[in-house]
Write a structure and sequence with these properties.
By secondary structure, this protein is an alpha+beta fold. It is built from two helices and ten strands; from the N terminus they run H-H-E-E-E-E-E-E-E-E-E-E. The strands form three sheets. Strands 1-4-5-6 form a four-stranded antiparallel beta sheet, with no helix packed on it.
C-alpha cells in the first residue's frame, strides 16, 4: 500500500512540475505580445511622465458632441522606446486623417475620418458592460458600436462632419 501512495504522490508532483514549466515556457514565448515590447523591459519614470504630459496637452472635448478628443494624424507622433529613450515616429493612417476618442457610460471608442469616410479604430466596454455589436466601417455614412450591461444598452454612432469625427450616443434602460 505505501508504494501506491508514493507512486501517486510522485505522479502528481511530476504532473504539477510539468504543468508549471509548460506555463512558464508559454509566457516566455508569447510574453512580448502580452507586454507590447520586444525586449521585455519596462519604461522609466521619466518616459512615463513624458507620455502623460503629452496626453495632457491634447485638445479638450467638443461640448455637446459627447466626450472625446480630436487628434489630427497628419504628422507622426513621437513615442519613447524603452531601450534608448529616443523618439521614433509612429505610422499614421493618411495625411488628412483626423482621430477622435469618444467616451460613453457603456464604453470608449476611437474613430478616424479620412475625408468623408469614418472608421472605428478600436472600442472597449466600460466595467459592467460588454460589446453587443460593432460596425466599424469604413463607411461614408456612419460607424457604430453597441455596448450592453446591467445598467442598460448604450449605442455610439460616429460620422464625419467636415472631415472630423462627430459622435452621438443614446442609452436605453
Amino acid at each position: 500500500m505505501p508504494s501506491r501512495t508514493f507512486l501517486a504522490l510522485a505522479g502528481w508532483t511530476a504532473a504539477a512540475v510539468a504543468a508549471t514549466l509548460t506555463g512558464l515556457a508559454a509566457v516566455e514565448i508569447i510574453g512580448d505580445g502580452i507586454t507590447g515590447s520586444t525586449d521585455g523591459q519596462t519604461i522609466s519614470s521619466k518616459q512615463a511622465e513624458q507620455q502623460l504630459d503629452a496626453a495632457k496637452t491634447s485638445p479638450s472635448p467638443d461640448p455637446g458632441q459627447g466626450q472625446g478628443t480630436d487628434q489630427a494624424t497628419a504628422t507622426p507622433t513621437p513615442t519613447a522606446t524603452p531601450d534608448t529613450g529616443t523618439p521614433t515616429p509612429t505610422p499614421t493612417a493618411s495625411p488628412t486623417a483626423v482621430r477622435k476618442t469618444f467616451s460613453t457610460p457603456g464604453g470608449t471608442a476611437i474613430a478616424v475620418c479620412e475625408g468623408a469616410t469614418v472608421r472605428l479604430l478600436s472600442w472597449a466596454p466600460a466595467q459592467g458592460y460588454g460589446v453587443d455589436s460593432a460596425d466599424p466601417g469604413p463607411d461614408d455614412e456612419h460607424a457604430e458600436v453597441k455596448f450592453e450591461g446591467s445598467a442598460g444598452k448604450v449605442e455610439l454612432r460616429v460620422r464625419c462632419a467636415n472631415g472630423h469625427p462627430s459622435g452621438s450616443w443614446k442609452q436605453d434602460d
